UniProtKB/TrEMBL annotation:
Protein name: Class I SAM-dependent DNA methyltransferase
PANTHER family membership: JUVENILE HORMONE ACID O-METHYLTRANSFERASE, METHYLTRANSFERASE
UniProt-listed GO biological process terms: methylation
SUPFAM superfamilies, A to Z: S-adenosyl-L-methionine-dependent methyltransferases
């Protein structure tokens, strides 16, 4: 956590929709602080993000992107799965084999209750995951490549975990796409012929708060 590569904009410039918890999330300084925040937030997270002031559409749009670029028949890793919002959306689109990892035990407990996941495990996405290479057809990551969270190096780990011909779909908060080094890392992976960039479109993220993200879709070589 808290490894965003290049100097990013002040996180307090990003509209929090009046949420003190989002403000805390954007200013995290490490994994212990992040784990504590998300354990505290787990019980109200879904309600807070889906209320009228936020309109959190990122999970639904990411799941739709997975369905469009990769389909939902394969094995999917939801990296930074939180309470399972992405898993719910993927399951609604026909996915049946979804694993999830997250830093917070509290969030993982909520994700388990959704019934959308085959396996769930604790993991710090700022470090390599214990899964072997080429484990998944799709890696999806929503809400984790943002202020105070996981830096651009995560894309390399997602490539390692994805089978050749598989796909990566991730949201990157738009105001750190360039300044946080995420564009540069995606460009590097493309130049090394490790991925094909399918799209990096700007999409709604927290729609009611007028916050946008890059919907990054990559095909792994």
């Amino acid at each position: 956590m808290a490894d965003t590569g290049a100097t990013a904009p002040d996180p307090l410039d990003t509209n929090t929709g009046g949420s003190a918890l989002i403000q805390r999330a954007y200013t995290l300084t490490g994994p212990d602080e992040a784990r504590a925040l998300y354990d505290e937030w787990a019980d109200s997270y879904d309600e807070d993000l889906n209320d009228a002031s936020q309109g959190y559409v990122g999970p639904r749009l990411a799941a739709e992107t997975v369905a469009r670029v990769a389909g939902t028949d394969g094995e999917i890793l939801d990296a930074g799965c939180g309470t399972g919002l992405v898993g719910i959306e993927l399951a609604a689109l026909g996915a049946t084999t979804i694993d999830g990892v997250d830093l917070s035990p509290g969030m993982l407990a909520r994700a388990k209750a959704t019934g959308a996941y085959r396996r769930l495990a604790p993991a710090d996405l700022s470090r390599p995951l214990p899964a072997p290479a080429d484990s998944y057809d799709v890696v999806v990551c929503v809400g984790t490549l943002t202020h105070g969270h996981v830096g651009p190096h995560a894309f390399g780990e997602f490539v390692r975990l994805t089978r050749p011909g598989g796909s990566i779909v991730a949201t990157v908060l738009d105001d750190i796409w360039d300044a946080g080094g995420y564009r540069a890392e995606v460009d590097r992976l493309e130049q090394m012929a490790m991925v094909e960039v399918v799209s990096t479109d700007v999409v709604d993220y927290r729609r009611s708060a007028d916050v946008h993200a890059r919907m990054v879709a990559l095909r792994v070589a």
